[in-house]
Each structure stands twice: as structure tokens, then as C-alpha cells.
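re: ur question from the group chat, yeah i did fold both. here u go
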Amino acid sequence: MNRQAIGIAAFAIASLPLAIQAQTLEEVVVTAQKRDQSSQDIPISVSAFSAEQISKLGNTGLQELAKNVAGAEIFDDRGSGQPTWVIRGVGLADFNPNNTPTAAIFYDEAYMFSNVLGGIGLFDIQQVEILKGPQGGLYGRNTSGGAVRVNSRPPEVGEESNGYVRGSYGRWNKSRMEAAVGFDVADNAAIRLAAVTSQGGGWQDSLATEADDEFGDQDFTALRAQLAWQLNDKTEMLLKLDYGRDNSETYLAQGKASLLADASGRCPAVAAGGAADDQCFTLSNVLSNFVFGTGTGPLAIDQDDQGRRTTSNPINELDNDWRSVNMRWQWEGESVSFTSITTAMDYNFKQNYDFDASHLTLFHERSRSELSAWSQEFRWQGEISEDMYWLLGASYSNEEVVAFRNLDLSQLVDFPGLGYRSFTQETKSAAAYAQLEWQFADTLKLHGSLRYTKEDKDLLNYRFFETEGNGVDLNGDGQLQPFFWLDGVNQEANLDSHFSGHLGLDWTPSDEVLIYAKATRGFKSGGFFGGFAFSAAELGAYDEELIWSYELGWKTDLLDRRLRFNGALYYYDYQDVQGFTQEFSTLIDGVLTKLGNLGDAEHKGVEVEFTYLPESIEGLQLSLQANYLNAKISKSATIGLDPDGVQFPIQGLRRTFAPEYSVGIQLDHQADINEHYQLNSSVNYSWRDDINADDAYGTDLDRALFGIESYQLLGMRFEIVPTAADWKVALLLDNVTNEAYTLSSTSDDLGSFNRVQGRPRSWTLEFSYEW
């Protein structure tokens, strides 16, 4: 860990004033089991963030929360736009929008079925809950890693008019404005309106252009309107409308050099598994110099570690818009309640991306996907007696992805042309589930859940064709016609029946202690490869992956509720792991990546979480969380290939995006400056071990090109609040130590390699007013 970061944090602690008044930790209420409960009373490892905590951390996007959760990572090989949660090492690093995540996001209980839906902004939020471990009972499919619940703040009937306005300005001319207002429109009805817009913030410069591009500007706007209607003392309805658009520029990748100047082989430094040096060149450098005769062009060594200078063309951007309707009915009887949730969503996703990360046009991709979904859930719950609680539910969903992707390979000498791929994927899923809790003794509770799922998935009219350089002269007139690799391919995958759920036992020796043990079965649906396929066999359905989780956990409130100590030991038996494999293709005379089932894996780990209020220091709260994870492929016959075609067995390799250790520390302090003003201070620190460790790869070349090293991030927030007014002003500092860190490292499969770097040090000034 960096001494500078530790020193700053230590200074923050040492400067805090002493006091004598004792404090107690607040109860955290969560909805992880689809009803309001104290987080200390449920047998689930959950990290919950209130609106106030999210504000302290300076997070404006859901994916930004991951760095504050030990054991959670975000995969987004393009830096922004398609974030995928990886919890306790369980995740599939796939950017294709037809694939489902392993840690599903539930936005106001509506299931987000694609990774492109994970980029929703955080505004006017009541709470975010990150559930760790399989959630196969209450949540079902595609929660083998966990679940992420996002709960927006609803209107409240009978409350006085309330709201807030929050504006900020920061480094690189980044600005953000957020506002919300709630008020009654009748004795039994209230509405709440919320909006947010983020602009500017471009921090990168492309070496492919002469100008200082200041690339990376945000252009994000979202609106939400909610109506709460209290029909009578037992029945209420909540209607929510969402609209948003995102035309932001996304991160520019940095080219990674690996070739000798004449492309006769790999440069020695990279071949040995190390970092590239001045003897290493990219494919674009070689083509520019020897084929086009224009010199090497921008070199990889001209880039900086912070990611501000990149070799990419400045074309990366989004053009997204979405709209959704969510209607919730709630009926409360004396011993039984009923809930109905209906959701309809349309999401249009567009992204341009320079995959070769160079000044040439070797692999420029333009993606467009039209996603739509409709779902219905019914839920009944109640108590048979004081000792027995039950829940029954049923759900149905219909999802469709219409995907288009264009490739521009104009300057790729051996494979020039334009490629076009399109398909439609339809998914229908139905499920019935139940949960039962039985307090059969004063200190013992037995609980279990069971879900039956039926799912059908169809891939329709898959087409992949090329024009220009790879077209065909069908008429003998010298005019090249489109050449079809695949045309009109249809595939289907049927999950005829599948059971998931859990069985567990809780022991509560006192009101302040919970010890639980449980076994859980979860699964992630099978599906189809959504990339560029050269044969129908590549489009065959891959199987669902199964996971058995065994967890022993504890939750305690000690020292008169001034110390909270929670933790868990977990073991995963993971079968038919989904992932990417490589195979040699004679079509491109190189290695291609395809999606399939790798084999079996084992994940073993332990996590702990401390929250402490020192009795001798008034207003101070210290939080610490840590996770240890050993995740490896335990059984597999799959043979991997590195970019040079060197074979290696994947059995025994560590899984990627599964750091062995991860740590998070947060200090919060409140102190009076004088009788008129209060200073609220927050310091947060996170550290990850190697994200993609050396032992996750079978060759030195893979380690050099795809490894991601450890990193740490330090953030601060200082807020001044008047004691007799409703406004406050804050200064936020992000990445205080200016850490250089990598978010992703990947290949375009055609000879170019790249990495995406995280943002360097930044600051933000924020003003807010509440009423």
C-alpha cells in the first residue's frame, strides 16, 4: 500500500478533536428479502448505501460504488457504457448486449436483463443494496454472483412539500445538476419529480490528432416522475415513469505495443511477460511505417500511465436513450399482503469504439442494439403465526434484443473491408418461488427457499457479411458484392426446468448476535455468442452454469452498539463455468475468441466488516471491510491459446477479475466549527490486489498483454453545513494520490491490444439546498 495514501489518512485521524460523549450505531434497514428488515437480522451478506453515503463517496454512477465494496469488481472493457458486476469472482467478462450478467441489477425491483442497462445514473436514490452470493430463491436466474438492488426515493402521501437542488463543478469543466421535489396533489395522492444532467469532464488527449481533444465529455440527462395513490387504508399504487439519454464520450483506450519494428516477432520485454519498452511497437506502427510509408505514427511509449494521452482515434461515444414504466400495487391485510409489479422498458443502445486503439482504421466498431422487455411479478407474504413467515411469488418476462454491429477494417492489410452483423434474440421466462421461515426455538430459525424456472431463448436470423475488400465478384464485372459468412442462422436454447433456492439455519444467542449457515443453489442462463461468428457451430447454445454456495456467517453489535463486526466464510462449487476460449482460425490466420463452457471452478474466501464509533472521539465513525478470495478453474479439458497460438491447459488457473485481497477503509467525522457552522469530513480508501493476476494466464505473453496489477484509490469530502440554514457546500477530491490504474486490458483479435486507464486526480465543488 502506498505510504503517501496511508500518511494522508493518518493525518486525517490525528487531526480529529477528542470528546467524551458515547454514540450508538444506526440500524440499517434493507429490502434484500423483499420486505423491510434490519440488515443485522438477515442471513445475507449485504453492503447497503444510503443517499447520504452515496453523496459522501461522490458516486454518480452505479458502477462507481464497486470500488467501495470489498469482493466486488466491475468489468467494462470499454471503460464506460457496459458495466458488469463481478462479485466474489463470479462474473462473465462479455460486452455483447445479448448476454445476461451474473449479478443482476434490480431497479425498483425491475430486472435489468442486459449489461448495457447497468450504466443507469444515481439520482434521487433512497438506497442501493449489494447482495453477495447466489440469490437463486427470491431472485432466480442470473444471480449466481449476487444481486444489486437500486431503490429510488418514492413520493410520500401526507408529507409536507420537500425536495433539493444540488449543483457541482469540477476539474476539466465537468458540471452536474440534480433536483427533486415531492408534494401532495390530493389528500390521498402525491407525486415526486426528479431530474439530473451531467456535462463536460473530458480529460483525455488523442495522439492521433494535433489538437488537444479534451475527450471524454459527459452528456447525460435523466428524468423520473412518480405518482403514489392511497386508494384506501389497505391499498396503494405507485406509478413510475423514467426517461433518459446518454450521448457521452467514453474512455479512449491506450494501445499496447508487443511487436518488433519489422513485425518479425514479439519484442523481448513483452515475450518475457514484462512491460513494453522502446523496442516494442503496435501493429499500427508497423503498417504505417512499412506498408503506408507514413512513419510509425504515435507510439505506445508516448502515452502516459494516467491514461490522459492515448493513441486511439477520438471516436468513442454513446448515443443511448431509454424509457420505462413501472407500476406497483400493494395490498395490506391483517396477516397477508399482496404485491404486483409490472414493468415495460425500451432501451436504444448505440456505441462507436476504436478497438485497435490506434491512429489507423484497423478495427472501428459501431454497435446498435434495440432492447425491450415486459415483466410481471405477483407476490403474497404473511405470517402463519408469530413463529412462521411465508412468501409465495410468480413472475413472467419477455425480453428482446435486436442487435446490429458494423466493423470498419479499412486499413487492415490482410483483412480489409467492412463487416456487418445482425441478429434478434428473444427470451421468455416464467418462474414460481416460495420462501419459508420457522422460528422453532427461542434462538433457532430454519429458513429455506425454492424456485422453479422455465426459460426459452431463440437466436433468429443471424447474419454476418462483408463488403469492399472481402466482397465477391459474382457478375464478373469487377464489382464486389457482399460476401456472406453466415446468413439467416437460427438457434434455440431451452431451459426446460430448473430448480434453485437455499436452506439455512440461524442461531441468535442474543439480540446483538446472529450466526447463520446456509447452502444455496444458483444458476446463470445459457445463451448464444453475440460477437462475429464465422460458422454456425460458433452460434450453438452454451449451457447454463450452476453454482452451489456454502456460507457460514455472523453479524454482531458489540460494546453497547458502538462496534459492528460482521463476516462470512464461503465456498463455491461452480459447474460449467461460462467464459471465453481461444481457437486458431485459418480464415484470419490467427487466434479468435469464442464463448462457451470452460469447466468447473472452486471459489473459497472470507470477508469481514467492522464499523466502530470510538467512545472518546465524538462524531467519528470508522469502517473497514476486507475480502480474501481464492478462485480457480478446478476441472477442465479446455486448452487455451495465447495470441501466438501457444497452447496451455486452463485447469488450475486463477479466475480473472478475482483479486486475492481487497480492502476498504472509510472515516467519517462531524465537528462544530463554531456555533453557526459544522464541518463534516469523510475519507475513503480502497485497495485491490492484482485484478488479473499472473497465475490467471498460461503463458508469459498473455500475462504481459492482459494482466491487470493491483491499485489503490483515496478519496475525500469536506462539507460545511450551517446550523440554522438548509444549504451546504462541499469539496470532493478523487484519486488524491494520482494513482495510475488499469480498468481493463483486452485485444481486438486481429493483432491489436489495448488497455483502459482510470481517471487521474480530480476535484469537485458542490452546493446543495434542501427543504
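okk and heres the other one u asked abt
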Amino acid sequence: MVCHRPAVGHTMLPPCAPAPHHAVVPVSTKPADPHSPITPSTPTSTPHSPTQSPRPTSTPTVTPTIAELDSSPPTSTNHATSHNLSPPSPPPPIRTHPMVTHSQNNIFKPKTLHHATMASPLPSPKPTCVPQAIKDPHWRRAMSEEFNALIRQGTWELVPSHPDQHVLGCKWIFRIKRGKDGSITRYKARLVAKGFHQRPGSDYLNTFSPVIKPTTIRTVLSLAVSRRWPLKQLDVNNAFLHGELDEELYMQQPAGFIDQTHPSHVCRLRKSIYGLKQAPRAWFRALKAFLLSQGFFNSKSDSSLFIYNRGSVVIYFLVYVDDIIVTGNNISFITSLIRTMGHRFSLKEPSDLSYFLGIEAVSVNDGLFLSQHRYIQDLLQKSGMTEAKPVATPLASTSNLLLHTGVTLPDGSDYRKLVGSLQYLALTRPDISFAVSRLSQFMHKPTDVHWQALKRVLRYLRGTTSHGILLRPQQSLSLHAFSDADWAGDRDTCLSTTGYIVFLGGNPISWRAAKQRAVARSSTEAEYRALAASSSELVWVIHLLNELGIPVTDPPALYCDNVSATYLSSNPVLHSRMKHIAVDLHFVRDLVDKTILRVSHIASNDQLADGFTKPLPSTRFICLRDKIGVADGTSILRGRVKEGCVLVISAHKGEFETGYERGGQTREPVQLAQTLGVSTLFVVVNKMEDPIVKWSKERYDEIESKMIPFLRFLGYNVKKRSKGPFRMPIIDKFKDMGTVIMGKVESGTMREGDSLLVMPNKAQVKVLAIYWDEDKATCAGPGENLWVKLSGIEEEDILSGFVLCGVAGYKAVLHVHSVVEECKIVELLQQIDPKTKKPIIMNVFHSARYHPPA
């Protein structure tokens, strides 16, 4: 860490001085000397110490406390208050120019609306150095917790420094951990060694550490869902600190925690620490030794899978570094195992599986729904695509991406980052596998054409943020797969594309879209190479299932839509045009001869792997997407939201905020309204002439002060989470509101049934209904403010300031003031005066009850 010297006249918080016995030193308020170098780890005073002994000194057990950090007074700067009164400013000059501005005629440029979340005050930014971190109580507490864990583990011992020692540096890393709803769950400070200074051969030897394969995760989850087994999630605190080191390593004392009695000593590492190259391997070795001692055996198909199968007890243990999934048929054994493991390692509180490696897992009546909804939203936010217009497919069916097309991007780092993020997203989204595989082929030199194709994938995700894979309970755990190839689909290299998907019962567990490595001379050869790749995956899954105790008795079916490739897999012939692929030929044929699998022909219309090899038209793509297990969480998660949730929809494009009784809000697309989980969900729609999206605290308080009494009047008890309001009379004129715009007719007339044009995007729409004041009208003239329901507007962007024109001549008919889009309201509630029994006019809201579409 490098701290720069402050300029003369500026005060800077000096680094904390070390306290005796590793106590954290209170923050000093004395300004630093601008002419002296800044050393974050230098103590302010050094007591007299006895002569140093070469014998190692054990680390004291006294650890820093938050109270010591909080006891110091805050740094403050006193400013002199001036009492000099400035002379009054002269009055503004009187306007004499005859020009009239737009603002004087109440003509303003449409406001640009942005997303805003009122969930909580913005968290303090992540600090960049130790002095900055110590100023914030959250980060002080996080640093103390990390240091305490290091001391408890006996991670190091202090020894005198020696010129022959290769001492590694260390630094503090600060992270904010969030839950699946985006809320802050933990401020995390991590002390890491500067492992990039380690010397190979002396400081480390082997560094490889396995992680669980995605296919293994989906396979085990599918088995657990089918057998109704519990799914538990474990997280190990400071996992890397449990690993034992074989090498002798030295590290500097951590900044802010220097031992005052031995300030020049260094830390001789007894155990591994984050940042070391061998730390993941050391941790996995320690965990493996523990599990083997408990009766587990290590899977040969996946080194990060451990299986316990004794008597009638079957337990699966999946490891991804320090994130663990446990499932099995004996909950008492699982509880006992977790308790025993907690004595050996420091565990967080075990919980049901809900959020694992960025994947949201939700148990539903139909099984287990896996999605990366939050990950997609963050990805769209980072790429600035939150307001992008959705499309039906990731790639256009006519797209033909070439290597040398378009203008090369000056900086391709953003392209590479986004494609890398999409690769991780494909863990639960097989529908984007081909698009991601295709875009990954241009990582080294992306162009503007490739960038536009990448943005189209993001636009597709914009409309399918709630999609994921649904693992349903299966009566039969039969194994089958679909294999396909696109012959010479790559125009640059003439290489073919392989695509396959493997099902366990009806659940997808493995899929792939990849370019073949050799040029195929015929479509049969391309299909046969795809069969070889699919067969390899099937054989591996068979071995995995056998280890899991699921013997595959019937040979799995491998479906291919190429007749010639199907015949080649079973007939003992060697065609002259297929001699050069004899290895793959004999591999597939050997599997068929031994009845390990069977290759069957299938019609092209029934080929489920078609979308893994080429871009498809929207109708075909959506049909296959539904068949390969990708589902919309909007309908799956319906009714699973918390009771007592109030949904507020803005008048602009259906954006909304959810207000829980605990005071937090989370922004979501309106299509996910039913996934928020109330049995009775209120929708409060802003008046059309007051479209507010970016709410301030004052605005939210104003809304809450008017909304909560209204809901209570309807019989809704926020604290008790009652099931909903009393039925109130329905205002029929907005009962089937649908997509509505509000605007003012400028010229001509507008009639029900007219075909109009939206400018400037030239989208054609049809007028379905016109409301004027309190009545429904069939036509309207100039100067009238209208509520207009349109068709054809759902798939088009339309904002305040747009114009509806007559198709002929583009003559303006209506100026759009505001829009409600993507929101279906089927029942409106109006407050009734208890005395007069008449509806009370709401000046702020029209209130509605939301019914998700069937």
C-alpha cells in the first residue's frame, strides 16, 4: 500500500499506531507533519524492549476491541465565522425585449427519468487504505473480526526478521456482500498476503484445487428434488485459514495491528492465508481429510463431490471452495454432520439452499427453480441497458458474424468483460449458450458489429430477467440426450458447430455449444463429430450416476437428426470419405456395440439441440426454449411473495418500487410483480400528469403518509399481514386499463379505430378506446385532454414528448404527456366516504388491485 504525502496546509488522518499486544490503536486527531514520510505501520512510540532472542515469540492472545477504536474523538476542523455583512444585491433589470421564450409559454424539454432505489441510505464507499477504513465503524468492526479470526486460528507466530528471509507483504481488501435481493448483508474485510511475490519451487509447489462441476450440481439437485430430500447450504468462515502449509513462509505484520513490543518482527505462517498461491489447495486438503474421516468417499467423476453411502443412509456433499451444499435421505445424520464439522471448522449458521454462487434457488410446488435474476439486473445496470428495448431472440436469425467486419473497437476490455459475464450466466440459461459461444470467438479483436450483437443478447436478457431452469420431480430417472451440428457454419474458418443437451428424466443437467476443431468434409462428418462429443458427456454422466447410487440399467438414447450419422454409429462399414475420423468412429461404435448407449434418429422438428448450433427465428427459438427446461419465473413463483407488500407503479413504463413493512424497497421489472409474493397485492398508480420515478425521501414520505391510511381504511393491516382489503365498488371506466397514454389533441380529430403513427420511431398503433373527462368517447377534437388506449404499443418505446400523427402527411394529432406500459389492471378500488357512501376523489393516486395474468 502506498500513501502519498499530503500537501502543506492540509491535514490527513495519520495511520494508527500499534498498541501493546496487538490492540488496535485509537485514531489520532493530530495533523501529520507534511515534511516527514508517512509510514502506515510505524508506531508513534517504541518502548524499551529486552534484547531480541532468535527463539520464536508466540503471538499474544489479546485482540483489538471496537470500543478502543470508538473511544478516540473524531477529527474536526474549526472555521472562523465571518460577521461581515455583504451589501444587498441590486434588483434584476426590467425586461424590455419583445421575445417570448418557451419557458414563459410553459413549454419544457421532457425530463429524462432514471432508476432510483429507496431501499436504505447509500452505504459508505469501500475504503482504499487502512486510515480511511478506520474512520468508518462498519469497516473497523470488519477488520477486528478478521484479525480475531486469524489470532484464534494461530495463523502465524512472530519471529525476528532476518536478511535471508523472503518476507511477503500483505494488504487489506474490503468488500460489501449483498443478498439475493441486493440488500447489504455484511461488511467484509479480508487480510491477504501478496502471493504474487512468491517464488515457485521454494515458496510453493502445487497450486491446483478442484471445484464442483456445474453438471454435477444440477444432477445432484435434480436427484434431491425427485426424492424430496432436504437441501442445506453451508458457508465456512475464513476457510483458507484452516489449511496447513508444507513450506516455510514469512509475512509482514498487518497494517493497523503492529505488535508494539516487537514492531520489527515478521509473521512466520503456521497455516495458509488468503492470497497465497497454495491456499485453495491447502484448504481443500484439510476439508477432504475431515470428510474421509467421517466415512465419505471422494468421487472419481468429480473430485469436489463426496458421497456417504452406508446402510440406508445416503448423503451427497458438494464443495465449491468454501460454499457447500449438503443433501441426503437422513436429516438427523446431516444435522449431526454439520455439528461435528462446526467443531472442526468455523461455520456460519446453516440454512436451506437459497443463494449459491450467485444462483437463486427457490423451492416451489413444481420442484426447484434456479435463476440468476439479480445477476442479470446487475449486468444490465453495469452495461447501461436497463431501459433497452427487449427482443425475442439473443441473435437475429439472419446474423452472420465474421471476424473481419466492421470497425475494430479501440478498447475491447468492455466487450471481453461482458462476454465473460454471459459465460457465467449460461449456467442457468441454456438458451443463450450458442450466442455466448459465438461472441466468445471475437474476444481478441472485437468490432462495432460484434458489439451490437452483444448488446442484442443484453436486450434479450432485458425481457427475460426472470427466466431460469425448473428442476421438476421425476418418476423415472432415465438418461437421454440430443446431439446436433451446423456444418461449416463459421464462414471465416469453415468449421462446424457442435451442440448437445443431456436430460435426467425431464430435467436438463448438461449442455454445450462449441466450435469443432477440424473442418468437416460433409454434414455427416460434422454430425458424427457432434455425436462423439455428446457420447463422451453421456459416458461421464453414467459414471457419475453410478457413484451416486443410481445405476443406469437401460442404455441412454442419443438422438440425432442425420440419418447417415445414425447408420454409421451402428453399421460396421468404413466409408472412404470417413476414414480420416476413424478414432471417433470406433469410439461411438464401440459404445453402441457394448449397449452403453444407443443412437436413434429423430426428425429435425423434434431436435431440441437445434438452438445450440445456429441462430433461429423467434417462433422456433421460443418453442425450443420451453422444451429444454427454460421457464419464466413470473408464473412459477406466483403467490410466493411475502404478505404485506405494497406495490407502487410509476406512470413511466411500468417501473415500480416495493415497500415492505420493515421499510425497505427493491426495484424490479413490473412483470415480476407476482413473484414478490403477497397473496393480496396492492398497486398504487401515480396520476398520469405526475409521472415521478426518481423519488426523494420527502416524496416517499408524502406518498407513504397518504397511502398507508388509505390501505388501512380498506381493512389492510400492515403489521398483522392480513390477507387483504375489503371489496370496494369498482370504477368500471378504467377496469380494463391495459396500455394507456395521456395527451392533448393539438389538431384534427382522433376517432376510435384510427390507425396512427408514433413519432419519431414511426411505430404504427391503433386507437382502441378514448376516455374524455368521465365518459367514454368515440372521437375527440383539438384542445381536449384524453386517456387513450392503444394496441401495438406494448413492443414499442414511447415516452413523454412523443407525438401521435396521422399516417398521411405526418400531421400532429396528439402530444403524449405520459405513458403507462406493461401493466395490466383488472380491478380498481376507490375509497368510499363512510357517511355519504360516495367515492372519494383521490388527488394523488388511482388505486388498483393487481391480478397476475393466468
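fwiw on the second one: The longest helix spans residues 523-547. Residues 162-356 form one domain. idk if thats what u expected
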